[in-house]
Amino acid sequence: MIGNFKNAGRQWCKSAEPVLAHDWPADSIGRAIPYGVYEVTANFGYVCVGDCFDTPRFAVDAIADWWCGHGCRHYRDAQRLLILADAGGSNSYRSRVWKAQLQELCDACRFPITVCHYPPGCSKWNPIEHRLFSHISLNWAGVPLRSFDTVIKYIEGTETATGLKVRADLKRGGNETGERVSNDKMRSLKIEPHHICPAWSYTIQPRPEPSTNNQFIYC
Predict the structure, then answer these.
(1) Element of type H or E holding 42
(2) Given 3-state DSSP classes, what are the helix, strand and coil percentages for the chain, each rounded to the nearest 5?
(3) Consecutive H or E run containing 103
(4) How far is CA 205 from CA 63, 86, 88, 95, 191, in A?
(5) What percent of the chain has pLDDT above 90?
(6) How many CB atoms lie within 10 A of CB 213?
(7) What spatial distance separates the first Cα and last Cα of the chain, rounded to whole Å?
């Protein structure tokens, strides 16, 4: 919750600033939804902060923003993308919208995308938790998150002795809940389940590009 609320931790300051002990929605100016992408080998984190809902479309949009703004420039010769994700939440292995949106991203990038979900209850072994989000929490500990600008500032200001760098963007609106994917659309997706843990591990192949031959029909 964004507002004048208590944030666990300590910060040295000249004088104490009064804050609210309870983060009631009525007292807030909004809700920050951070979705992170962490590159293990580069020790680089990208966090997309939304202000609506944590939806599968928002999750895939964050991955697409990372790829268009950072990934495609640093991995020019990439021929595939491997995503390690939690089993639940906006990137749930059961979500049809998550898979359908990844198919759209796959079609745009023109290379296969492999997704491997951590089993339910095992998200604590995801490197993004203890190499990115934990350091962000330590960086803004004790600081009331009174605005979205404060959230972005402290996320981007997160650094470690091992060289962690973080970039953050604010995405306003566009994350409405209730999106559905029909059975016909699901059958059109090119999803190849793996032999081991097929429910949690699968590869999405790009679909053939539509023909560029223009046909004119006069009626």
Answers:
(1) none
(2) 30, 20, 50
(3) helix 96-109
(4) 17, 21, 23, 18, 7
(5) 79
(6) 5
(7) 58
pLDDT bin (cut points 50, 70, 90) of residue 124 is: confident
3-state secondary structure of 2: strand
| Cα separation, 170 vs 33, whole angstroms | 10
Say what the pLDDT of residue 176 is.
81
Distances (CA, A) of 147 to 41, 46, 205: 32, 19, 41
**Cβ atoms 29, 147 nearer than 8 A:** yes
For residues 114 and 193, what is the distance between their CA atoms, to the nearest angstrom? 10
pLDDT tens-digit readout, 54-110: 999 999 999 999 999 999 999 999 999 999 999 999 999 999 999 999 999 999 999
Whole-structure pTM value: 0.89
Q: What is the amino acid identity at position 56?
A: P
Phi, psi of 5 (to 5 degrees): -115, 160
